[in-house]
Structure formats: structure tokens, C-alpha cells
Design goal:
By secondary structure, this protein is of the alpha/beta class. It has helices at 16-24, 39-53, 57-64, 73-83, 94-103, 132-142, 157-162, 173-178, 188-198, and strands spanning 2-6, 85-93, 108-116, 122-126, 146-151, 165-169, 184-185.
Length: 199
């Protein structure tokens, strides 16, 4: 039995923080897991910037409401889900993901949650589990699934390398150079065919 594990941002939808950085005019918020491998460090950095600018959950959700999946993403996901089971494993948060899941046809997503004060200030974040993508893939394997994984960032490498087959998708040149053994694709058709061949 196989199960496909996909990253969300950069693979199926644009990077939420980049969209918010552009909408808010705060370029420092453009930093993502493609730039900073340490997710806790990255989120602490982001929350400090939000606090400094008096921005909270509502402002980010207003931006997310305007984000659409990448062209072809929903069709790719629909086709893949006809073929096999698919789980999106993301380091995003339920408060961010829900409107995007609606636009993608409600696929299953495993992600984290934000701690939000009554006034809407994001005061912290709760990771579902340490090293969540890798840990989730290993847990799926422990109950009899062979995993096939794809993502674009540093925090996807653990699940990609631990899987029966793993692929980079629209990743950075640096990540591709550092991991030459991983097949790297730029289109959904290529990724679909690679996953299909691995099943």
C-alpha cells in the first residue's frame, strides 16, 4: 500500500508568507523554509515582526482569502487522488490552511496550530510533533504504508529521503545542487508521471 505525502506551500499553493509580505509591504516576511532550515527560528522571527507592526491573524487571513492554488494544482491533486491516497504534510497552521483546502477540494492535511490571543495577536505556535514531515512519514511506514514524497524546501528533505521514492518540485538551485540524487521536476505532469511510475 502506497501513500503520497506532499508539501503544501511552493508545491500546490503560493508561499503564504511571501504573499503577506507583499500585501503588508514588509519585505522581511519574505523569508521562508527555502532560506531558513530552522523552522522554530523562522517562526519566532516572523512573530516578532508581526508584533512590531501590530499585525495579527485577521490581516494574514485577509491575504490568504485572495490566494488561489497554483495553476494546475487542483487538477494534479484530483488526478493523483484518483490513483492513490494523498496526504498534505505542511508546517503551516490550521488557521491558514482551511480556506486553501476548500479551494483544493478538501484534501487531507496534517499541519500545526497557532496560539492566538482574544485581540487576534498571534502569541505563539504549537507544532504537532517535532520534525513533523519526517516523523509523519516514518509513522505511516510503521503502519504498513510505503511513502512517496515531494516538496520544495529544506524542511521537506527528511520526508523525501525517508520515502520509497522522493522528488523535489520547483525547488531552489541550491537545494537541487546540494541533493543531486533527488529527481527534480518543474511541472505537475512530470511529477505525476514520476509518482505513477513509483507506485
Amino acid at each position: 500500500m502506497e501513500i503520497v505525502c506532499l508539501d503544501l506551500e511552493g508545491v500546490l499553493v503560493p508561499e503564504i508568507w511571501i504573499a503577506f509580505a507583499e500585501a503588508s509591504g514588509i519585505p522581511e516576511l519574505k523569508k521562508t523554509t527555502r532560506d531558513e532550515p530552522d523552522y522554530n527560528k523562522l517562526m519566532t522571527y516572523r512573530l516578532n515582526i508581526l508584533k512590531e507592526h501590530g499585525l495579527g491573524l485577521k490581516e494574514i487571513q485577509d491575504t490568504i482569502a485572495k490566494i488561489d492554488p497554483m495553476p494546475g494544482a487542483k487538477e494534479f491533486l484530483d488526478k493523483l487522488r484518483e490513483l492513490t491516497q494523498v496526504i498534505i504534510i505542511s508546517d503551516t497552521f490550521t488557521q491558514f490552511a482551511k480556506p486553501l483546502m476548500k479551494k483544493l477540494g478538501w484534501p487531507t492535511i496534517f499541519c500545526n496550530s497557532l496560539e492566538v490571543a482574544d485581540n487576534g495577536e498571534i502569541t505563539g505556535f504549537k507544532m504537532r510533533i517535532e520534525n513533523s514531515k519526517y516523523t509523519t512519514v516514518k509513522a505511516l511506514q510503521s503502519v504498513g504504508y510505503d511513502t512517496i514524497a515531494s516538496g520544495d524546501s529544506y524542511n521537506d528533505l527528511g520526508m523525501i529521503k525517508a520515502s520509497k521514492a522522493g522528488f523535489l518540485f520547483r525547488s531552489t538551485d541550491k537545494i537541487k545542487q546540494d541533493n543531486p540524487e533527488l529527481p527534480a521536476f518543474e511541472t505537475y505532469d512530470e511529477l505525476f508521471e514520476a509518482i505513477k511510475a513509483a507506485l
